[in-house]
Write a structure and sequence with these properties.
single chain, 88 residues, globular, binds zinc ion
Length: 88
């Protein structure tokens, strides 16, 4: 079982099937968030890095990296509510 927080992207709050930083939050997968496109383990390795990436992502239109994965009824505001608290 993974906690909901562990499954969430630190930048955009997207919920992955596997925890982007592992169950211990210390072993990043070095894969890409299909939503914001952050590479887990790089830009999101610090709260400042995650915030900077998020600010830039939103400023450039909050586009999905994997546009086919975007739900039709996607609500960015709802998803942003799920960013792990330490990275808001
Ligand atoms: Zn993301």
């Amino acid at each position: 079982m993974h906690s909901d927080t562990n499954l969430r992207c630190r930048v955009c709050g997207y919920k992955s099937e596997n925890p982007p930083w592992g169950d211990n939050e210390k072993t990043p997968l070095y894969d890409y968030c299909p939503c914001c496109g952050v590479e887990h383990g790089y830009q999101d390795s610090s709260p400042e890095g995650a915030r900077n990436y998020r600010t830039n992502w939103i400023a450039t239109g909050a586009k999905w990296m994997a546009s086919t994965a975007r739900p039709k009824a996607w609500e960015i505001k709802e998803q942003l509510n799920h960013i792990p608290p330490d990275f808001i």
